[in-house]
Task: inverse folding
């Protein structure tokens, strides 16, 4: 079993990056690997509650994220400096079960993986 | 296990390089390519951050073909190592994983 | 070593797919194996049969085809990303009643599972994106 980390660094809606990263992440769950995800930089905006993208003709990314544990993605990491830079607190996230980690922990996390999928 | 970071955005217009530098470990490597090579310039907004991690032992490379294309060969930090795709392949083998910052 | 590449950017508009091709050529020169190139997001445009650049400019779809033909490399184009962006093979063009197909020979539509399989089977996986 390989440790595969998806690194998701882009905000939702303005580009398709975040949505297509999530689709790849959900597809990964069928493959029995140790799949994890890190949200960093503008990627942390995907976790912000109260997203209402209907007028854009897009599906809510925030509403999709709580499904991750159901897809066996249990290790969901969020970079705390990225949250802080953007003025987002833990209580404003759509998921409780995230691990908020600092830059040093992100370094270590990257070093532990067998593959990185960069989005 | 260490990580090879690739960065293809200019630090004059994107915070991408700065984000990469914030999570770089001392045994990681950084390869600047495409517009990322502007990050190798002595006048880059990330020059001091780059010097700090160079001092910690991180190796920073820039693709020679991208540097030459942009006419900035004379403007780089001395510690940047110009390299080619052959070495890029070798670096991807020496490090465990590649994180692409774009 | 066994490599796979993920290409997420379109040819011509950014440098990423050219960089990916250069990396692919270098790893093959060094005797490594290129297991798969997976085209995702805007990368699906590398599979277009309809690109017609000026003669003195690179033709990325043709360059990928040539590399794949010479070295037996799998060029997989994510079907979900392709359909959204208008890259269709004959079967999908018929299914969706489109006037024509435009997926270049040598490229195959596949699922995200093949991206995961590349991650599992390869020693090194590198993303080229924008």
Result:
């Amino acid at each position: 079993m390989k440790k595969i980390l998806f690194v998701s660094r882009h905000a939702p809606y303005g580009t398709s990056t975040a949505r297509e990263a999530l689709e790849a992440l959900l597809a990964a769950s069928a493959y029995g690997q140790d799949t994890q995800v890190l949200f960093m930089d503008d990627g942390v905006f995907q976790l912000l509650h109260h997203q209402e993208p209907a007028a854009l003709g897009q599906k809510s990314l925030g509403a999709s994220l709580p499904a991750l544990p159901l897809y066996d993605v249990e290790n969901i990491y969020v970079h705390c400096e990225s949250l802080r830079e953007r003025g987002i607190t833990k209580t404003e996230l759509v998921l409780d079960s995230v691990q908020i980690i600092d830059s040093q922990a992100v370094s270590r996390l990257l070093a532990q993986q067998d593959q990185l999928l960069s989005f | 296990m260490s990580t090879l970071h690739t960065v293809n955005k200019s630090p004059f217009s994107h915070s991408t390089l700065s984000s990469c530098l914030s999570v770089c470990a001392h045994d990681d490597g950084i390869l600047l390519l495409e517009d990322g090579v502007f990050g190798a310039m002595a006048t880059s907004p990330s020059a001091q951050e780059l010097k700090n991690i160079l001092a910690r032992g991180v190796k920073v490379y820039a693709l020679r073909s991208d540097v030459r294309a942009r006419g900035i060969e004379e403007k780089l930090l001395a510690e940047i190592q110009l390299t080619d795709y052959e070495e890029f392949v070798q670096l991807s083998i020496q490090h465990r994983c590649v994180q692409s910052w774009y | 070593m066994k490599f796979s590449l993920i290409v997420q950017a379109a040819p011509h508009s950014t440098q990423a797919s050219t960089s990916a091709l250069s990396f692919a050529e270098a790893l093959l020169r060094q005797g490594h194996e290129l297991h798969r190139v997976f085209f995702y997001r805007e990368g699906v445009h590398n599979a277009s049969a309809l690109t017609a650049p000026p003669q003195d400019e690179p033709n990325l779809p043709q360059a990928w085809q040539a590399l794949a033909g010479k070295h037996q490399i799998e060029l997989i184009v994510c079907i979900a990303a392709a359909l959204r962006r208008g890259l269709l093979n004959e079967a999908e063009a018929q299914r969706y009643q489109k006037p024509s197909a435009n997926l270049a020979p040598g490229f195959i539509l596949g699922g995200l599972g093949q991206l995961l399989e590349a991650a599992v089977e390869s020693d090194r996986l590198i993303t080229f994106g924008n």
